[in-house]
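Handout, section 4.2: multi-component inputs.
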Amino acid sequence: MSTSVDQSVNQILIELGVEEFEFIPLQKPLSAQHFQSWIEKGFAADMSFLRQSQAVRSDPRSEFQSMHSMIVFRHPYFPHPQSEGFPFRELKIAHYARGKDYHFWFREKLQKIIQSLKAYFPDEQFLAFTDAVPLMERDHAYQAGLGWVGKNTCLIHPKKGSLFFIGEILTSLHSKNNPQTLPDFCGKCTACIDACPTSALKDDKVLDSNLCIAFWNIESKDVPPSKLRQPMGDWFFGCDLCQTVCPWNLKLFKDHSNFAQETSANLPALEEELRQILTLSNKQLLKLLHDTPLSRAGGRGLKRNAILVAVHHALAGLIPHIEPLRDDPRLGSFATWAIQELKDL
Ligand code: B12
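Output:
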């Protein structure tokens, strides 16, 4: 049952040209228990931020007491909406990261929407988030009817696929909307589970971060364990494999022929990009990439990733640029391992 508040919010957003959203009451996530057991099994690896704020995660109303509803948004990131000026062409980088950082531009978009809502509802409160908040965003988006949780754990929509961000505006407004959730259309398909080279996906919508390529090359401050180095392939930042094989994304890719980039076709150009990363100081690297998601890995993390890609492509010409990293307190033994591998090839 929708009310005049629901109708007004919908109308304001539609007039702004926003299409992919749903206004719903702020509710508990359905999968708080699932999240808890995921943490207890150690599947969060060392992402300690996920262990904090359990109370907010399991009931956002405990933290945001004056908020009664949320507007949940999907924002497509393929093709990337802000890719201009992105410095790399050859490195294999997850689609979401091939441009400006969504934590800034998506949130800014949500802030602009808030301005319009504020003009109509001056006494109400609004807060915009994407990713940087302890909310179970996939769960809330599922409850909003924006997709189902796939076997790859991503939220998938039958027409939009899964290459989209989730963001939300929490508000003191009251929604009475009760949208239909989408059925699970994964069926018997196990393409994502089968495609994951590090077997990070379990067959019950559970991802073990300890085995996930994206965890190792984005979030971890450590170097990947020996057994994962070869299966991680040449992903420099993030990984899209469990999404690129998903039948629900195929149409998206067909519509945009520039998609694939599974492996760099131009090795000299790839080597040059790796050389740039290995030779810039950590500070210079962060300056170059500060407004992209790549900055999340930090200068040292990006060098770690560059070393692994160099080994994957047997780029022995990069040995002189890896050599100085032997003295790095965190990368030292990894650099030594890589140089040995490159010499042996
Ligand atoms: C930590 C984190 C990661 C970790 C762990 C990922 C994971 N699957 O747990 C790592 C670094 C590996 C990662 C990788 C990626 N991430 Co990430 N990540 C997050 C973050 C910050 C928290 C996720 C979390 O709580 N994980 C714990 C698990 C248990 O929760 P979950 O992943 O949300 O999964 C839910 C469902 O599986 C659900 N579930 C299982 N069965 C069922 C059944 C039902 C009915 C319901 C409702 C729920 C449900 O339970 C979980 C909790 O709701 C969120 C932002 C946020 N605040 O939510 C982004 C987020 C999930 N990531 C996102 C993206 C884009 C990615 C990557 C695609 C980036 C890349 N290309 O490299 C990959 C995808 C890898 C993958 N298959 O998940 C998007 C996902 C958008 C989408 N369409 O789903 C989010 C929502 C960020 C955003 N605001 O857009 N990520």
